[in-house]
Amino acid sequence: MQEMIVIFLIVLLLFGAKKIPELARGVGKGMGEFKKAKNEFEREIKEGEIEGEKEWEKPSGSVASTDADHSDPHHDDSEKS
Prior knowledge:
Largest sheet: none
Structural class: mainly alpha
Strand content: under 5%
Low-confidence stretches: none
Distance between the termini: 81 Å
Helix content: 55-70%
Number of helices: 2
Order of helices and strands: HH
Mean pLDDT: 79
Radius of gyration: 30 Å
């Protein structure tokens, strides 16, 4: 508790009594913006998880083909060095 009093007195001396309410408002606005950004980030992460789950639930016929399925018609595998 003593540390808090010392910190408050130092802030009071540095900024003066008139600036403290402005500083408190600025800190409050900053915290509000931080919470808003945090909530937006969490919402996007959850939406991404839901999209990923939907991708895994697709029927097996829609599985993407591998590179082996896409052979080059101009490349002849029989010509090996």
